[in-house]
Design a protein that fits this description.
Elements lengths: L6 E4 L1 H12 L3 H19 L5 E3 L6 H7 L4 E5 L5 E9 L2 E10 L1 H7 L6
Parallel strand pairs: 1-5
Antiparallel strand pairs: 2-3, 3-4, 4-5
Length: about 120
């Protein structure tokens, strides 16, 4: 049994990305969106499911934009990535999906870095 989360919240950037993916006629984008949706049940049961980005390797831009203390990465189809953080509020754990990024964007953030 994993570490449970109370809910999953999408940042405005993640919600916008998911909306674009779901609205696209491209079947590959539909596959990415379905995987994002399917991760909900997995992450609520085990919020540590993703791969941990070491604290000193969290990109400065993402750290500043979202105030990240921790970052986890889930692989999606077509080399896309879902980036999330775990936050606590009033004793409850929440997952905040900060970004759903394509390969080029992800590589720009983590240039020369190994997760």
């Amino acid at each position: 049994m994993g570490l449970r989360a109370r809910d999953i919240i999408l940042s405005s950037a993640a919600a916008e990305s998911l909306s674009r993916l779901e609205g696209s006629p491209d079947p590959a984008f539909g596959s990415i969106a379905r995987r994002v949706r399917s991760l909900r049940s997995i992450l609520l049961v085990d919020c540590l499911h993703g791969e941990v980005a070491k604290k000193n390797r969290i990109p400065r831009g993402l750290r500043a934009k979202y105030g990240l203390e921790n970052l986890y990465v889930e692989d999606l189809p077509s080399f896309w990535r879902l980036l999330y953080t775990i936050v606590r509020d009033r004793g409850e754990r929440y997952i905040v999906v900060v970004e759903i990024a394509d390969h080029a964007t992800y590589d720009a953030w983590f240039r020369g870095r190994v997760r």
